[in-house]
Amino acid sequence: MIKITLPDESVREYPAGITGLEIARDISPRLAKEVLAITVNDQLYDLHRPINEDAKIKLHKWEDAEGKHAFWHSSAHLMAEALEALYPGIKFGIGPAIENGFYYDVDTGEQTITDADLPKIEKKMIELARQKEEYKRREVPKQEALQYFEAKGDPYKVELLSELEDGTITFYQQGNFTDLCRGPHLPSTAPIKAIKLLSIAGAYWRGDEKRKQLTRIYGISFPKQKMLDEYLQKLEEAQKRDHRKLGKELELFAFSQRVGQGLPLWLPKGAKLRERLENFLKKVQVKYGYEQVITPHIGQKELYETSGHYAKYGADSFQPIKTPNENEEFLLKPMNCPHHCEIYKVKPRSYRDLPLRLAEFGTVYRYEQSGELHGLTRVRGFTQDDAHIFCRPDQLKDEFKKVIDIIFYIFKALDFKEYTAQISLRDPDNKEKYIGSDENWEKAEQAIIEACREKGLQTVEELGEAAFYGPKLDFMIRDAIGRKWQLGTIQVDYNLPERFELEYIGEDNQPHRPIMIHRAPFGSMERFVAVLIEHTAGKFPLWLTPEQAVILPISEKYNDYAKNVLNLLNNSDIRAVIDDRNEKIGKKIRDNELKRIPYLLIVGEKEAGENLVSVRRQGQGDKGVMTIDDFIKFIHEEEQKELAQ
């Protein structure tokens, strides 16, 4: 007999070899129908896999991330089975579950799969799912596994197998399809009731541009058709909000092949939006005692070797820049922190000088493969709202908590109501990924955990998600349609101060090492603006929007009055424009509603004669007639309300 500890800490005894599905049946027949996977001593198992020793378990249903993972991973295998049936000779790369759904990378050889083929593949998947095929796990010796895939002519699986150790290899089979896989999977295909294949893309094998480009097919599946319908409705809304589409319509940013992939061009309206975001944060930073600095766009390669960034991220940097002096090499700046360390070293520092808070909207450059680029969310040149706080050990927690306050203020001002705070820790089983001593890592991790506890912040902890130089607190927000984005990060770093030999003279007149806090509430201006566009559907808060009002003269006769109104508004710090096209007023209203300008001011004979404006709110209709002074006062009050919420 073995002891099984349930999540409520109750213990049940079962014969060795019991499965998760049998435990679920023992607890409740209904649970057995709903359960999809099981965690056994922190390892995710199939429900049919025997448990042979005492264990803590947790059973996972669809509502759990682990349940969805097993469901979507199994769906990827189901798609592969359908592809093999429809396209004999197709070769398979990898087919994982992802945050929303799954994909499989395939080599179609001489055959071609297009969007038009997706319904046919979906139909085959449903047909196979209805056969309720069991997912069977089998441990396989390495030599046997190699022979199987060599005989099948599947070179990608052979390559993956060559890197695995004998005794760690498992096959999964359902129906006529067998795959190299760690699992876990569903007990059978029966729960997969609704399937939608979403798109096709190209993907280099193992992310290497020098390797063959495979066909990547994305899909999603659900246990009920209603769930799929709701998801597709959300997807349609997400497409309407796509920042690439809205950015073009609202004339915020553009890309040019001549300038280069992943290098955004900020248009006048987009530049105004960015400028207002930067000024908003700068005002907050002044309040919290930050000093603004500016550093160059390039730095000597040696700078990034000292920091450790080059060893970790050299492959993702642009190639070094050569100078006429053969001994000199520079890099486009991939991050700001080494430059700020050098600013700290400009003069001797005393314990009285700390904390020193250095802030910079610093543009950095990192090489991303062309297939990974995506609008503003994945670019090759981006501006970080970066700051580095150099402090004493006794100041660390207070400084960390003040940064949390800044991030919450930003979330409130921009109406991000739902968030998760994630403490990203070092992977204790893979310490070679990180720099620095165990002692410093433990101190840094403990400082973050204690600071969050003292702020009363609910957090989740994730192993292996730390930066290479230190642990961090990451904020994941949910946008207006429920999608998760990582925005805002605070990192504790004992290691860069050591590598740069930073010091301050303490009260004891002896040199001491400061601690460094890295922080970026926005993360990057590009990514933050992309998320903001999609969160608001382009309807920005009044205090932030590039154009707060548009003046619409009813006819050319009132253009001069419209210009007078414009001058009065602009002189009162209200961002306004005129639409003086020779068009009917109805068309002007419709066109400017689409531009998402909050207020439309219509001026005609009555307004010109009495110094008035007729006010319409975007999406809400007529708001009545106001004097120009009243409208100015109204706008300023609205802005203050938004920022004070």
What's the total helix number? 20
What are the segments in which pLDDT stays under 50 over at least 5 consecutive residues? Answer: none
Mean pLDDT: 92
Radius of gyration: 29 Å
What is the count of distinct domains?
A: 4
Structural class: alpha+beta
Our measurement of the CA-to-CA distance between the termini, rounded to an integer number of angstroms, reads 59 Å
Helix fraction bin: 25-40%
Which architecture of the largest domain would the CATH scheme give at its second level?
2-Layer Sandwich
User: Could you tell me the number of beta strands?
Assistant: 35
Report what the structure shows:
GO terms for molecular function: ATP binding; metal ion binding; threonine-tRNA ligase activity; tRNA binding. It is found in: Cytoplasm. Pfam families: HGTP_anticodon (PF03129), TGS (PF02824), tRNA-synt_2b (PF00587), tRNA_SAD (PF07973). This protein is an alpha+beta fold and 645 residues long. It has four domains: 60 residues, Ubiquitin-like (UB roll); 175 residues, Threonyl-trna Synthetase, Chain A, domain 2 (Threonyl-tRNA Synthetase, Chain A, domain 2); 245 residues, Bira Bifunctional Protein, Domain 2 (BirA Bifunctional Protein, domain 2), CATH 3.30.930.10; 98 residues, Rossmann fold. It is 35% helix and 27% strand. The protein is built from 20 helices and 35 strands. The strands form nine sheets. The chain has an eight-stranded mixed sheet, sandwiched between helices. Strands 2-1-7-4-5 form a five-stranded mixed sheet. Strands 8, 9, 10, 14 and 15 form a five-stranded antiparallel sheet that branches. The protein is globular and about 90 Å long. The model has no long low-confidence stretch (mean pLDDT 92).
